[in-house]
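User: C40 family peptidase, Pseudopedobacter beijingensis:
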Amino acid sequence: MKKVIIFTLLVSLTLAGKAQSSKTTSSPSTSSKTETSDPDNLASQFFSQVMGVAISATSNTKMYQFIYDWLGTPYRFGGNTKKGIDCSGFTKAMYDKVFNTTLLRNSRDIFSMTNPLSKDELKVGDLVFFKIKSKSITHVGVYLGDNRFAHASSSRGVVISDLNEPYYSRYFYKGGRITESLKEE
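Assistant: Predicted structure for C40 family peptidase:
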């Protein structure tokens, strides 16, 4: 319920910002959008607060909106709905809806679709892979910047976590960027 109220407030502020900016009739050389009337800036400020990452107005707000819509969804192994979802299902759904890219269904197979990256090479939208108490990849999430990532945790459902948390730092394996040849144009 709290998410619905917050989202409604964001939409109201965004619409008010669009209405205010459309009323401005000054010439392009003298007009400038203020932070409070720019809907993209309002959205980025909102998601920055909710997700704990610095998000610019030029960021992929569609990705952050997707994550926000799924936050709190319970974990269910093999699940792919709002009733329950696992880490690879969440990642696959996000890439399908946000990036128009079809991923394979489990974290090991998804890793095979990427160019591996070190932690310091990660960019927003890249994938992060973990080997949790295993010799093979067992978990995947989506990097948000500022060492934060979104994922479906087996104990907490869809959440945003920090790569520097001792648990995730211990089991982090590699980052990955989907190879360009796999992206749909």
